[in-house]
Design a protein that fits this description.
Largest sheet: 6 strands, mixed
Number of domains: 3
Oligomer: single chain
Strand order of the largest sheet: 1-2-15-14-12-13
CATH architecture of the largest domain: 3-Layer(aba) Sandwich
Strand content: 5-15%
Helix content: 40-55%
Structural class: alpha/beta
Number of helices: 21
CATH class of the largest domain: Alpha Beta
CATH superfamily of the largest domain: Glucose-6-phosphate isomerase like protein, domain 1
Bound molecules: 6-O-phosphono-beta-D-fructofuranose
Number of strands: 15
Length: 539
């Protein structure tokens, strides 16, 4: 029987067993079903994974070739097979003396050079040596979308306590509301615009970049002098009019959603400075080392991935909630949606055959405690099981508000405990009886207060959310996605699924101005919507 078959059989045989029984049978379960990486701990003991399931999961990772593919990635091989590219985001945070080759060439000198240029420019902006036409830069707008936005925007919010540079804003949506609201109140004479786009063709980014340039043109004589660009398409940045001195390139073997470690992080570099950015890279590098050196059974990204495989592909839980008890990680779920769903939302394997199991899960979430007052009801009592992933810092950043951090921590621990332990009908009846209810009314009310429990969660716990820790966390998630992709046999590094909608949008835009012949080629629903939009003056 295949490992997949053995896992399915084991799941069927143990279905319904309560995780509290697993704890009762094993005094050391909490420690044994936890994994350490540096000072960070991932506790996955509040799941129904037992020793046999874990052994099978690790075996599955091994048989899928995780260690071989991992070596191939770190070694610069072309593992992004559909695009014929290496996958080397890890090079962007590698040691200063690292040698990493692609096609026989050491890529590190160029990477170090670009990082040094980006740091130097960031420092110039921070120290007021690079100035706007009305004085020192007060505001920076990063215009980008997807990987050219989500990573740096998430990290900029996460590292707010380290901000000592100009204010950094992120504009992504082609909806004019986004840029209009951002520009309101900014001074064009002291604003720097970074156009961040790997391809420099993305319609949202280029449209917003032109809008920002027009906004500036009304007030400064040379808008292009207050623009910088980050892209792999250097010719296109020149065509846009941005001086090469303020253009920061990167290579196509850094995927967009894996690119926050290099010049795509320029906005963050300006906000927190090179030293803190370096600390973030060091955290990621520490996780890279852990991932590449630790045996699979003690490897945090591998175990996190395999817990996900157990819940999604084996148990059939289609979604995963990411629940940071850390308000500054508010954008983490959105960032992970791209990282995980764009990477592992694939229907065919590497060789083009249909997958014979589910692809990656639907990832969503919100920071606790806000989520508790919104969707946790469903997590606790809904009919579907939603595996939860809690993130928690032992210390907050506000010593004067330590009492609030204690409350935050208590809430986080309470949620995973409630998910696991639940509340039985008998307990609920006891509570209702204590309130004086009796008979049929007691029974009716008690049933609404039952929590089934036995609902799985993991908790990632770390000392404090610092630049170093953030680097560890994000690299952990990157490698988890990689492992899951290898186990599913898919290419985690392309994203063909975003293309069709883009192509149709380009074709649709002119129809909004009314092209009857072209309208006729559309399906009845799209025609109806177009008709409504034209009647209500879409422009
Ligand atoms: O950086 P670019 O080239 O503007 O692309 C932005 C985003 O668009 C995508 O290609 C598809 O949505 C993402 O993978 C990417 O991060």
């Amino acid at each position: 029987m295949s490992i997949w078959g053995k896992l399915a059989k084991h799941q069927r045989a143990t279905e319904g067993r309560h995780m509290l029984d697993l704890f009762a049978d094993d005094d050391h379960r909490a420690a044994e079903f936890s994994v350490h990486a540096g000072d960070m701990v991932l506790d996955y003991s509040k799941t129904c994974i037992d020793t046999e399931a874990r052994d099978l999961l690790v075996q599955l990772a091994r048989d899928s070739g995780v260690d071989v593919r991992r070596a191939a990635m770190f070694g610069g091989e072309q593992i992004n097979e559909t695009e014929g590219r290496a996958v080397l985001h890890v090079a962007q945070r590698a040691d200063d003396d690292a040698v990493i080759t692609v096609g026989g060439d050491d890529v590190m000198p160029r990477l170090r050079d670009i990082r040094a240029r980006a740091y130097a420019f960031a420092e110039d902006v921070r120290q007021g040596r690079f100035r706007g036409q009305g004085g020192a830069i007060t505001d920076v707008i990063n215009i980008g979308i997807g990987g050219s936005d989500l990573g740096p925007a998430m990290a900029t919010l996460a590292l707010a306590p380290w901000h000592d540079g100009p204010k950094v804003h992120y504009v992504s949506n082609v909806d004019g509301a986004h840029i209009a609201d951002t520009l309101k109140g900014l001074n064009p004479e002291t604003t720097l615009v970074i156009v961040a786009s790997k391809t420099f063709t993305t319609i949202e980014t280029m449209t917003n970049a032109r809008t920002a340039r027009d906004w500036m043109a009304g007030r400064v004589s040379d808008p292009a002098a207050q623009f910088a660009a980050v892209s792999t398409a250097l010719d296109k940045t020149v065509d846009f009019g941005i001086a090469p001195a303020r253009v920061f390139g990167f290579e196509d073997w850094v995927g967009g959603r894996y690119s926050m470690w290099g010049p795509i992080g320029l906005g963050l570099m300006i906000a927190i400075g090179a030293q803190q950015f370096d600390a973030m890279l060091a955290g990621a590098r520490a996780m890279d080392r852990h991932f590449s050196d630790m045996p699979l059974e003690q490897n945090m990204p591998v175990l996190l991935a395999m817990v996900g495989v157990w819940h999604n592909q084996i148990c059939g839980h289609a979604t995963r909630a990411v629940l940071p008890y850390d308000q500054r990680l508010a954008r983490l779920p959105a960032y992970l949606q791209q990282l995980e769903m764009e990477s592992n939302g694939k229907r065919v394997d590497m060789s083009g055959r249909d997958l014979d199991r589910q692809s990656g899960p639907v990832v969503w979430g919100e920071p606790g405690t806000n989520g508790q007052h919104a969707f946790y009801q469903l997590i606790h009592q809904g009919t579907r099981v939603v595996p939860c992933e809690f993130l928690l810092a032992a210390r907050g950043q506000e010593p004067e508000l330590a009492h609030q951090h204690k409350l935050l921590v208590a809430n986080c621990l309470a949620q995973s405990e409630a998910l696991m332990c639940g509340r039985s009908l008998e307990q609920a009846r006891g509570i209702m009886a204590a309130k004086g209810l009796q008979g049929a009314e007691l029974d009716r009310q008690a049933r609404h207060r039952v929590f089934p429990g036995n609902r799985p969660s993991t908790t990632l716990i770390y000392p404090q959310l610092t630049p170093f820790t953030l680097g560890q966390i994000i690299a952990l998630y990157e490698h988890r996605v990689f492992v899951e992709g290898v186990v599913l046999g898919i290419n985690s590094f392309d994203q063909w699924g975003v293309e069709l909608g883009k192509e149709l949008a380009v074709a649709l835009a002119p129809l909004l101005d009314g092209d009857a012949a072209a309208m006729a080629t559309k399906d009845p629903s799209t025609r109806q919507l177009l008709g409504y939009l034209r009647a209500h003056q879409v422009g």
